[in-house]
């Protein structure tokens, strides 16, 4: 894949919005680019080298290899594998699985660290990504302590659609990419409870879903006369 294609790839990432064109082009020269099929496990460790990934297209879930639980979902325009920047060990305890066909670029973590040391704006943006994920994990812990299972599932569904969905007139529609088991992992509940709550929400008119899409009413649109 040529350098200009990779440059187009990185242009849409907020991470790089303060880097100059020359720096971007140099970075593109050392990036690898790959197309990933739906359902494929993405190797975070290649040839004994840890890598940082930039997701241009598609959606990926990050799974804990120890207990096989989903840790979080990554949407296009974001990075994953960033733990390699903070963990000196070569041991990888996460795996990434493509929830749909994806396009990624990746770079060895050692090279990424070298680039971060030269560009504080990029380093700060990566810290923000990592910090945001820590906050989400803290919120999940807080929800586990103070919210019942029904509320956790309802809140998760709404948050997922708002984050991954797109507005289509009077509804916000997202691809239905995660299984009931994944939702159960992310809300610390069980799959049967998730199924029951989703059915209840549909009967209440709170959501609509099928095997491909899940949606909620667009409250802002519905406020307009």
What would your notes on this structure say?
There is one protein chain. With 225 residues, this protein is an alpha+beta fold. Helices cover 44% and strands 27% of the residues. It is built from eight helices and 13 strands. The protein has helices at 3-11, 21-30, 109-118, 120-146, 149-164, 180-187, 191-203, 219-223; strands spanning 32-36, 41-42, 45-46, 49-57, 59-64, 70-75, 78-80, 94-98, 102-108, 166-168, 171-175, 208-209, 213-217. The strands form three sheets. Strands 1, 3, 4, 7 and 9 form a five-stranded antiparallel beta sheet that branches. Strands 2-8-5-6 form a four-stranded antiparallel beta sheet. Strands 10-11-13-12 form a four-stranded antiparallel beta sheet. A hairpin with a 2-residue loop joins strand 3 (45-46) and strand 4. Helix 5 packs across helix 6 (180-187) and helix 5 (149-164) crosses helix 7. It is globular, with a radius of gyration of 19 Å. It starts with a helix and ends with a helix. The mean pLDDT is 86.
Weakly predicted, low-confidence segments? none
- Number of H- or I-type helical stretches: 8
Profile the largest sheet: 5 strands, antiparallel
Q: How big is the Rg?
A: 19 Å
Q: Helix and strand string, N-terminal first? A: HHEEEEEEEEEHHHEEHHEEH
Give the helix/strand class: alpha+beta
- Beta-strand residue percentage: 25-35%
User: What is the CA–CA distance across the termini?
Assistant: 50 Å
Shape: globular
Overall residue-averaged pLDDT value: 86
Number of extended strands: 13
Could you estimate the helical fraction of the residues in percent?
40-55%
């Amino acid at each position: 894949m040529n350098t200009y294609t990779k440059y187009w790839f990185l242009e849409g990432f907020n991470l790089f919005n303060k880097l100059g064109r020359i720096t971007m082009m140099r970075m593109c020269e050392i990036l690898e680019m790959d197309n990933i099929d739906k359902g494929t496990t993405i190797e975070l460790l290649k040839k004994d080298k840890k890598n940082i990934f930039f997701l241009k297209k598609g959606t990926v879930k990050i799974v804990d290899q120890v207990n096989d639980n989903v840790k979080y979902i990554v949407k296009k325009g974001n990075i994953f594998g960033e733990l390699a920047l903070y963990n000196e060990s070569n041991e990888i305890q996460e795996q990434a699985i493509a929830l749909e066909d994806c396009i990624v670029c990746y770079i060895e973590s050692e090279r990424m660290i070298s680039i971060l040391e030269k560009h504080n704006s990029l380093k700060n943006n990566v810290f923000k990504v990592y910090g945001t994920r820590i906050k989400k994990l803290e919120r999940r812990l807080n929800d586990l302590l103070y919210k019942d299972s029904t509320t956790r599932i309802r809140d998760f569904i709404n948050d997922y659609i708002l984050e991954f969905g797109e507005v289509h007139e009077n509804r916000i529609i997202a691809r239905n990419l995660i299984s009931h088991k994944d939702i159960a992992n992310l809300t610390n509940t069980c799959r049967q409870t998730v199924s029951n709550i989703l059915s209840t929400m549909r009967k209440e008119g709170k959501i609509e879903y099928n095997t491909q899409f899940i949606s909620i009413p667009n409250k802002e649109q519905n406020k307009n006369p």
